[in-house]
Amino acid sequence: MSDSSAALEIRPDHGPAEYPALVAIWRSAVRATHNFLDDADFARIEQALASDYFPAVALTVAERDGRPVGFAGTLDGGLEMLFVDDAARGAGVGSALLAHVLAEQGVRRVDVNEQNPAAHGFYRSRGFVQVGRSELDGDGRPYPILHLELPGA
Question: What is the span of the domain harbouring residue 104?
Answer without folding.
Answer: 8-149
